[in-house]
Design brief:
about 750 residues, Cathepsin B, Chain A, 6-stranded mixed β-sheet, Rossmann fold, 6-stranded antiparallel β-sheet, ABC transporter transmembrane region fold, single chain, globular, disordered N terminus, 4 domains
């Protein structure tokens, strides 16, 4: 019997041997060979840093080894939950999805389990007892890794009860072709096809059962009361109570399924949109205001409102209003034309009023966006406003913006209230017309009293979803627009697709070539770089200097792969950065930006942003190299001290700069890009920085933006930029004296 890898596992047919621990062995029993090789692999160094504190977490390593997972341990660390272990099978399945493995649930049946389905997950209880089924012995027993015992065990098949989760790789190309062709929203709905069918099946059953109450009323009036038969009434009462109880149960189930769909879809949209935004090229996102991006993410999450609440129930009930309309025609004949006429009136009113409503809401939304942008700008710059005594000016601006927003919001709400009043009047007119015309038919003997009451109940039941959808048309329109925006966002080409693993693990050595590179931030803006050409051998330290706006920071961003040149090329070890995986390349680059970007979290967590696998010893070494070791030791909890916003304001820029430098040092990369870090360092920090630069010379390529002659003298080469072009390029002994002479001439003049 052959135990195979993950490929071809969808159909469950046996495959060719693929797993590194599942090939045929010398013993003649592949399961025993598998056990020996997997035991050796589990004791090895691969994936040794994984947590095994829970059964689910303990099963991760043997599963990945059996699947022949080719990703890097860094990818796995990035996919793990933040500061939380894998508690149960659901957490483990979510992690596998993030590293592009699909898990398919099946009830365990030993007779259906075949080698082509292995390895697979197996859970018992509430999902907290997890194991991995790895092989099938000739006698039918199973070789498993028990997450509780954290060891390989043989389990008799007749003692195995639980749930099986088949594991198969997600074919990303097929998914992205579907997204580009049909849209991400359509793809996401396809994932919940069964649940959606379940909702409409439940809605059909609920609406059919809802006919029971009007029919009960009609029969009570026409049969029980007319015949003066208490027994008939009792039978009707028992029957309707059973139907109502059954209907309530179905409504409860439908509400739960709809709530699940809404929450799950909101989660998918929010996470997918965030992943796409983070993976889009920087030039496509940094021009949009932060408030606009936050608003868009909240708007994406608003799709959930289409599923839950009264509107969600009305949407699922709408296809079945014709069931009630047919029942009205069947019971009362021409009386059904009254609710049918109202349906047509609502349809015409919707066509006429929706554009007006959406225009008012769009104007109010634009005003709200401007007011929100203003508030965020004020919150970010309130200290400068106070320092310049400009409070009154900003208050007046705030009054104007919010007055405009509130006025437009009032007009939109006023128009919406008018529509609500009009719809209620139409419903009341329909009810009165139905009663009046039905009474005439009853007086003429064409309709019984019980049938009239039943028709009135059916009319109210029919009009309820129609009115709810009419009043929610604007919300539905916004939801459709949001879905289009989600589709457009997900069709954009990112630098790297979410959860994508690198196909080629490249090792970079640091040879940087910049060939006639040109770049401008906007089509109308002046070029930030004009035909810059540099060839930097691996291990060389290059100091870049120049006046403000000369293009120094832009040049570093091009080398980091954050921007792409509009002309020319940037190459690393001869590879054009436009042809390589940008995210993978940046793992070989330590980049220190000009801004002091320290994140909320502990000191250790900030350092782990650069390398999730870093050890505490390596952190201490990086802090010592940055000159921040004593400072971190003086903190209340050392590396575990949480950096809050108040701490960032209390600490000096030099301390923050040292932490950012330490974050760069932990990576031990072949390429270092340092954007003027020395401008904020004190003497001790500057001396530590110079020592680090000297230690990197010859073993890493360093591009250092600086204005300090002491830093330039540490370099092998100094490049002077002026208005996006190279003004000078040479050794420090030649360039630095010339720069100092120019500065002296400017002072004299």
């Amino acid at each position: 019997m052959t135990v195979t890898g993950a490929q071809g596992r969808e159909g469950g047919a046996p495959d060719t041997p693929a797993s590194p621990v599942a090939g045929a062995g010398e013993s003649g029993n592949p399961v025993h060979d598998l056990q020996g090789r997997l035991g050796s692999a589990l004791a090895g160094d691969k994936l040794a840093k994984l947590d095994d504190s829970t059964p689910a977490a303990a099963c991760l390593k043997p599963l990945l080894l059996a699947l022949e997972w080719t990703g890097q341990e860094r990818h796995l660390m990035e996919a793990l939950p933040h500061l939380e272990p894998l508690h149960d099978i659901d957490d483990l399945r979510a992690l596998l999805a993030r590293i592009r493995y699909r898990t398919t649930h099946r009830a365990f049946r030993r007779s259906e389990l075949r080698p082509g389905m292995l390895p697979c997950l197996f859970s018992q209880g509430n999902g907290d007892r997890v194991s991995v089924i790895l092989g099938i012995e000739p006698d039918g027993s199973l070789l498993t890794f028990d997450g509780v015992k954290k060891s390989l065990v043989h389990v008799p098949a007749d003692r195995t009860r639980g749930d099986v989760y088949l594991v198969s790789p997600i074919k990303g190309d097929d998914i992205f072709e579907t997204i580009h062709k049909h849209g991400w929203v359509q793809y996401a709905f396809g994932r919940f096809r069964r649940s959606i069918y379940t909702v409409f099946a439940l809605a059909f059953a609920v609406n059919v059962l809802a006919l029971a109450v009007p029919i009960y009323v009609m029969n009570v009036y026409d049969k029980a009361i007319g015949a003066k038969s208490p027994m008939t009434l009792l039978f009707f009462l028992i029957g309707i109570l059973i139907v109502v109880a059954f209907e309530m149960g179905l409504r409860t189930v439908r509400a739960r399924v709809i709530a699940f769909l809404g929450a799950r879809f909101e989660s998918l949209v929010t996470i997918a949109a965030m992943q796409q935004l983070l993976n889009l090229p920087l030039a496509m996102t940094e021009t949009a205001p932060i408030s606009a991006q936050i608003s868009r993410l909240k708007q994406f999450a608003g799709i959930r409102d289409l599923f839950v609440g009264q509107l969600g129930g009305a949407l699922t009930d709408l296809p079945f209003v014709f069931v009630f309309l047919g029942a009205i025609f069947l019971i009362s004949g021409p009386l059904g034309f009254i609710p049918l006429a109202l349906f047509v009136v609502f349809l015409v009113a919707a066509v006429a009023t929706v554009p007006l409503t959406r225009r008012r809401i769009r104007l109010a939304g634009d005003a709200n966006t401007r007011a929100r942008d203003f508030v965020m700008e004020l919150a970010d710059k309130r200290r400068s406003v106070r320092e310049n005594g400009a409070e009154e000016v900003w208050i007046e601006r705030c009054k104007g913006l919010f007055s405009t927003y509130l006025l437009r919001q009032f007009k939109a709400q006023q128009f919406n209230t008018m529509l609500q009043t009009a719809s209620q009047m139409l419903v009341m007119v329909t009810g009165v017309s139905t009663v009046s015309y039905g009474a005439v038919m009853a007086l003429d003997g064409n309709l019984s009293v019980g049938a009239l009451i039943a028709v009135i109940a059916l009319v109210w039941r029919l009009l309820s979803p129609i009115q709810a959808i009419f009043l929610g048309l604007n919300q539905i329109g916004q939801g459709i627009d949001t879905m289009k925006q989600v589709n457009n966002l997900m069709r954009m080409q990112p630098e790297r697709r979410a959860n994508q693993m690198a196909t080629v693990g490249r090792k970079y050595y640091g040879h940087i070539s910049i060939v006639e590179a040109g770049f401008r931030y906007a089509a109308q803006a002046e070029a930030a770089l004009r035909g810059v050409s540099l060839d930097i051998p691996a291990g060389q330290v290059v100091a870049i200097t120049g006046n403000s706006g000369a293009g120094k920071s832009t040049l570093l961003k091009l080398v980091a792969g954050l921007y792409r040149p509009q002309m020319g090329a940037v190459r690393a070890d001869g590879l054009d950065l436009r042809q390589v995986d940008a995210a993978e390349y940046r793992q070989s680059v330590a980049y220190v930006p000009e801004a002091l970007d320290v994140f909320y979290g502990t000191v250790a967590q900030n350092l782990k942003l650069a390398d999730p696998e870093i050890t505490p010893e390596a952190m201490q070494k990086a802090l010592a190299e940055a000159g921040a070791s004593d400072f971190v030791k003086s903190l209340p909890e050392g590396l575990d001290t949480r950096i809050r916003t108040v701490d960032q304001r209390a600490w000096t820029d030099g301390r923050l700069q040292q932490l950012i430098l330490a974050r760069a040092y932990v990576k031990d990369c072949p390429i270092y890009l340092l954007d003027d870090p020395g401008s904020r360092l004190d003497r001790a920090g500057d001396e530590a920085f110079i020592r680090k630069i000297k230690s990197l010379s010859g073993r890493a390529t360093v591009l250092l933006v600086t204005h300090r002659p002491s830093h330039m003298r540490c370099a092998d080469r100094v490049v002077v930029l002026d208005r996006g072009q190279i003004a000078a390029d040479g050794p420090p002994d030649e360039v630095v004296p010339a720069l100092l002479a120019q500065m002296q001439e400017k002072k004299v003049s």
